[in-house]
């Protein structure tokens, strides 16, 4: 513990924690079939797992001498009959998970923790310990950026005094339901059902004609809908459909080009039908870049032209498939008929001829960092919906408002507000699957949610859902919300007290009570633009509840000005050559987080604790977090990495969010540090300590058995590094210039990368390689994927003296992909040896005819190319001509690629082929390639927990 903290009572979070067992439970909870009920209550973003949240809360307030077994018992992890060895038990069960018979719950022998609350006796025992630790009082818990409410909900399950704050009104409504109505109004089941039925029946009467049955009694479930525009050349219809698959392996649509320059469709559920011979379902009329081929005259219409048509409302909606439900309740797919088209036209006319429908939600949207829809004319909230979608949402709103006065009359105020709030969440949840941004999942034949990612993407195919029956009908969505609410109520102890809920900027928050512990899951820098995304719901929720919760729904849109995110688009109008909008956004985020942490510091009692749950990869985000913590006066006392997310697939690792969460804890000392008059520490005196702290943390993690990716090992070492840096703060260089935390983090990254090299490249000295080859190998080693954050790649380059921007054009080792780095394989770097030299692409830097190469990566990539194009025999001659049998750098690079590339990567297969057989003899290799190919079916690198 820091010298500044010697007089504070130590806490459990400042000691050893059962991280591996809790991480296992986090991953179990991530199963999409068995998630906690708050996940189904209403969409929201980046909710933390229950076990991680419980650990952060309990370990932040319990004394340090609490054992891991006691902590896990209070967290409801492990069988009740087991008094000791709970961590080991959970780890053994995890190790034998693949051999289990029966369900996961049966295998582990205890219920999922989120379904279990502490018993009265456990709560009594827990409270007794807490009062001893906190001078006779129960510690009050604060979550100042509560989001979806997992942390404060778990706090009230342990009957701790709880305060929750959230700036955004959409999650603030979720918090009211979770933290106020669930403990005070309690079960509402029969009342909710009564009013939901009335609302549904009233809306049905005004919607039935828009969802007509076909002549064969097939009721529409989902209209798979696209757009059509007029060809500027011939005037014919161009449906903007990218591909014709409806459900992989089950159904496709085939277009028919009509003589009148229209397009009709036929749906096939027999994929062996002779009509489908030579038909390519992936060849739609529009490509990924937005260009469209006219099916009548074959003239290409540019993407910019099509976007202009959308901006000018010069398009029509095009149904090209209908998912239906027959009289037996079975679903299927069919082509649209005339009745379907007439219903679509009826909806359009109804919107045009009804003043209220034609003007509802005419609120200009905020075009921000997360928005990819505005360029297609989606400029107002109403533009998020097609005419029929707009009507369906409107009719449920009208029915809700019709019965609202009755609900308020017939129920006590708190109960009435609870009923109205829960019902509005059900209506709002329907938006997530019934908007123009909710696309069609061709793998499942099912609608995707609008928020399958954290951006708003215009999609050329969307789902127009029938709210009256079927896959996404109102009743099924309402029942999910109702069941979620009722389950949440059942988790709360009898007589539990509600949390205090505020809807304020966390930087200005006043709780009105003394707080002992703040548990914070802060907004993640630029990862999620919460307010931009929330606007999709906000407009409708304001219509539902503006008079019930005026404090939440008084503004036109959600608050963008005070949101603690780094949103560059907010600063577009004030940026300049000296201050880019990204730099201004970063500066705003840093200042805002400093203000929030300073405010938390002021709210805490002397000796109080703040535990930050941070899940982010980017150094900028960590630099900001560290500066904010230090400037606020906190003394960093502990850091713990915990597996919190399902490991991302290799092709998804570009996300800025890490797979693990770091619990970073700071204490409010009894005597505040005088940072203004503190004697600065020289960076040269601190550097070695930060490097050693990072290395020690990395080695401990590698030995711990905690399942982390290599990137997460680096991130997890940031915590101990920051502790060293914070204790030495302020830090200056030899020129007396202040050194930011970023410098310590960069040092940590370099140090841990070397540890990973020693651990996973069999002690190989990568320093013998040229810088570019070393950087390329390290990128694959650390990130385990070809696409990852640009900042991560740049930092890795700086550590070994490579400016990645300088090498981009000359070496073609990487390219930009949506702002990220995407590494190139041999196929994207080597000229075609089978072409004449004068015909080869000069854009590719590697000429396979060269007798020597400036980089060993070039040589190995050229060898792969020759092997692919000319075969083994010519490759042997090629290798001997260039003396690669005695080239240690060539062999080291080949060996390293075998170790770092995923086994499903084409280059790994060529590296393996070069390392076996006659080419291996020609190279005189001193290693066995089979060591790196234990499992021929492996598709990614192994994780740390497997070593």
Tell me about this structure.
This protein has 947 residues and is α/β, with parallel strands linked by helices. The protein is 41% helix and 13% strand. It contains 30 helices and 26 strands. The radius of gyration is 30 Å and the shape is globular. The two termini are 31 Å apart. Mean pLDDT is 90; it is low at 646-658 and 934-947.
Average pLDDT works out at 90
Write down the overall geometry.
Answer: globular
Number of strands: 26
Kindly, what is the distance between the CA atoms of the first and last residues, rounded to a whole number of angstroms? 31 Å
Give a short overview:
With 947 residues, this protein is of the alpha/beta class.
Sum up the structure in keywords:
947 residues; alpha/beta; 7-stranded mixed beta sheet; 5-stranded antiparallel beta sheet; 30 helices; 26 strands; 41% helix; globular; disordered C terminus
Layout of secondary structure:
Layout: H1 19-29, H2 38-41, H3 50-61, H4 68-74, H5 86-95, H6 104-108, H7 120-133, E1 141-143, H8 150-157, E2 162-165, H9 169-184, H10 189-205, E3 219-230, E4 237-239, E5 245-247, E6 251-257, E7 263-268, E8 292-293, E9 300-301, H11 303-311, E10 316-325, E11 331-334, H12 338-353, H13 355-359, E12 371-372, H14 387-410, H15 413-429, E13 440-441, E14 446-447, E15 456-457, E16 462-465, H16 474-491, E17 500-502, E18 515-520, H17 530-545, H18 581-603, E19 604-614, H19 619-632, E20 635-643, E21 660-667, E22 681-682, H20 683-704, H21 710-728, E23 731-732, H22 741-760, H23 771-783, E24 787-789, H24 790-799, H25 804-811, E25 814-817, E26 820-823, H26 856-870, H27 872-881, H28 888-900, H29 906-914, H30 917-923
Parallel strand pairs: 1-2, 1-18, 2-17, 12-15, 18-19, 22-23
Antiparallel strand pairs: 3-4, 3-10, 3-16, 5-6, 6-7, 8-9, 10-11, 13-14, 19-21, 20-21, 24-26, 25-26
Helix pairs in contact: 1-3, 3-8, 9-15, 9-16, 10-14, 10-16, 12-14, 14-15, 15-16, 15-17, 18-19, 19-22, 20-21, 20-22, 21-22, 23-28, 26-27, 26-28, 26-29, 27-30, 28-29
